[in-house]
Design goal:
With 202 residues, this protein is mainly alpha-helical. The protein is 81% helix and 0% strand. The chain starts with a helix and ends with a helix. GO terms for molecular function: amino acid transmembrane transporter activity.
Length: 202
């Protein structure tokens, strides 16, 4: 995979991870309820669930490209429309309510369980990956390139939520994030709409 293409993939994965939603709320709750360690565990566990969905998506899309090229074209266009819809929703979201999540009574085991379950039980996550990764998977892509895609999505998700857990262990950080949540939504929305336009024009 060319480095410039990987940078595009990494940027989109980062924006997807950073956008306020149930995953961020879950990591916040465990961090506020149990401190840094449960928050980090929740974030890493969530990333494992994300990696599992990315793995299924990459290998599934590879099979579709080879055996059903017309279906893959429809998936690509549908994915572009879905990304644009997500972008518009993000632009209209304003301040992310997830940044106001309260604390819960937690443990390392509960944090690990919730991290995986929130990822796997989120049907929008698989739709996001189908929409996103259809732009990066090609018919001649080798196994190593697919591993790079899956690893990128997994590691970026883990890095973001670990950073959130570590940062929120300092009490001053949450108010700072809450005050700027609308900018996270706006940047995410613009990036998703730009990717959708790139797909349609390409």
């Amino acid at each position: 995979m060319p480095f410039t293409l990987w940078l595009s993939l990494a940027a989109i994965c980062a924006m997807g991870a950073m956008s306020p939603g149930p995953s961020l709320a879950m990591v916040l709750r465990h961090t506020l309820g149990g401190g840094r360690a449960p928050g980090v565990i929740a974030g890493v566990s969530h990333a494992l669930g994300v990696g599992f969905y990315a793995l299924l998506t990459v290998w599934g899309l590879g099979a579709v490209i080879v055996h059903q090229p017309l279906l893959f074209t429809l998936i690509t266009w549908g994915g572009a429309a879905y990304l644009a819809w997500l972008g518009v929703k993000a632009l209209r979201a304003g301040r992310g309510g997830a940044l106001e999540a309260g604390a819960v009574s937690t443990s390392h085991a509960l944090a690990a369980r919730d991290g995986v379950l929130v990822a796997l039980a989120n049907p929008k996550l698989i739709l996001f990956f189908v929409a996103l990764l259809s732009q990066f998977v090609s018919a001649d892509m080798g196994a190593l390139a697919k591993v790079v895609i899956v690893a990128t999505a997994t590691l970026i998700d883990a890095a973001w939520y670990v950073l959130v857990a570590v940062a929120l262990s300092h009490s001053r950080v949450l108010p700072w994030l809450q005050a700027r949540a609308h900018w996270i939504n706006r940047i995410t929305g613009l990036l998703l709409i730009a990717l959708a336009l790139r797909v349609l024009l390409g």
